[in-house]
Fold each of these.
Amino acid sequence: MGGTTEASRLAQALAQAGVDGIFSYAGRTSAPIAQPLPTRVGGFGGVAGLQAFLQAERITQVVDATHPFAAQMSSNAVQACAAAGVPLLALERPAWQAQSGDVWQHVPDIAAAVQALPTEPASVFLAIGRQHLAPFLACAQHWYLLRLVDPVLDLPAERGQLVLDRGPFTLEGDRALLQAHGITHVVSKNSGGAGAQAKLTAARELGLPVILIARPFIPARTVVHSVNEVLRRIHGVSS
Ligand code: 3Y8
Ligand code: NAP
């Protein structure tokens, strides 16, 4: 189950090792990156749907390489794999840790991130995708720079501006973006990984505060942190 940089790297390694696999996207974006494995797109239909899929496709191993904020999918995978008796491995990247120079405020969730914004008007880089924008846009005093994958909404110029980009992002690109728009605050999920990290490095260099949203709870499962570890565990191979 994919949708992350690590999932794409694992798909490449599995294809090269000749492992018979199926790549799964939720279908959140209009044109997801093509994968070197047979690919299915869309929800399974909850825990029961995933369990039925595992049985129908005679799946012998599930690798949950979804994003740390895809908590519903990961929770469903724990339940469906237990019910179907199919082993589950989670491929997860470590959370980001603050370094000297970082001005981070850790908040537990989206609602707390909205509360953490100042009362006086700010120019906010909202790089959390499009699923949780409403509570931020309700704070009418702020100007928002929204980075989205697909053009799913438009914003009057006095409220903010959209930038359409899929990532992975670069330090040069994100630094230029923050400077060009006079950004005063960055809001980010603690996603980890290299694909979304550039904005945090750029914020550190520019001395900008970052409101960092903690990862949601995911039920216990076996977690590994590298593609090679996945390959070693599922087939005794390494790329
Ligand atoms: C549909 C597949 C690869 C995977 C690339 C990674 C890196 C670029 C950074 C910012 C942060 C954000 C967002 C982000 C990143 C990678 C990775 C990552 C963050 C694609 C993809 C799918 C999605 C879904 C999308 C969410 C959104 C989140 C944008 C493809 C590009 C903000 C998460 O429009 C929407 O509804 C978008 C929804 C879930 C979060 C949200 O709540 O809106 N990802 N992102 C996957 C599917 O359908 O199963 O389109 O090709 C994948 C990637 N996005 O193969 O190289 O590994 O993290 N994705 C966050 O981390 O905060 C952008 O802008 O700085
Ligand atoms: P989510 O809230 O945890 O999942 C909601 C529902 O979407 C799931 O119950 C499942 O539907 C379906 N789903 C999610 N991931 C799927 C997958 N890989 N294959 C098939 N169905 C999937 O998920 P999300 O946070 O919206 O993330 C959706 C996708 O975007 C995931 O692939 C994730 O890796 C990727 N992504 C998410 C983020 C993020 O910030 N959330 C960031 C980068 C990439 P059913 O219940 O019907 O099975």
Note: The longest helix spans residues 71-84.
Amino acid sequence: MLKKCLYPVAGYGTRFLPATKSMAKEMLPVVDKPLIQYAVSEAMDAGLVQQSFVTGRTKRSIEDHFDISYEVENEIKGSSKEDQLSEIREIRENCVFTYTRQREMKGLGHAILTSEPMIGDEPFGVILADDLCITEGDSVMKQMVGLYKQFRCSIIAIEEVPKEETYKYGVIAGEQFQDNLFKVKDMVEKPAPEDAPSNMAIIGRYILTPDIFDYIRETKPGAGGEVQITDALLAQAKNGCVMAYKFKGKRFDCGSLHGYVEATNYCYNKFHDPSE
Ligand code: G1P
């Protein structure tokens, strides 16, 4: 039943101004591929083929990217450059796309709630395209789908971060359940290091059960005056079960200049022949 993946892409990307003044930050390329394509490709690898986007003004290029561009396709037809479009064609052929707009920026929790009419009463994946994850084997979302099938509850991806950086993330406290898997006991959005319950930070990959929408509706604005998914997940964890999974793979924070440049260098060295 896990078929849908949600991409909250309404945020402004102010750290990349002026590049993101009129362009979606998710369209920034890491080498030759936009961040959002890495995300959709990861979901497809996990078997999630219904792609849903919560977009905003200035984000139309995302819709165009996953549509056909007749001029370009015609222009390169029969040339070696066709290879460069093979992945996006595969995505187009295997996936369906739906879009809705978040008109006001009221936080990640609010963005996820905005998707309810598209998602309905089904579990769904969430990918924050800013967090680029590169793995050797299964994608991070695929690793999480495997766990969902086993536990049938919301699952969040986590990573250990230096304690002084907890203020950038949602941070969990958990009871170890098995290797790399924790049952969530506490969660705090963007805590100062001295208030953080651990150094295990939430990374932009979630599988959510649909009762999360009711929890979000009950969630008051929290850190930064925004409706936080972290707070809704804590309520869900207290009433039922939320698992936190320390994933296998490498994560780049492409919402920061440093992480973006690091990801670019890493992907260039890993996926491209420097003699090209
Ligand atoms: C969001 C979440 C946060 C999580 C982070 C991962 O924050 O609210 O809990 O740790 O994504 O990237 P944002 O980076 O949108 O401020």
Note: The chain has one domain: 4-271.
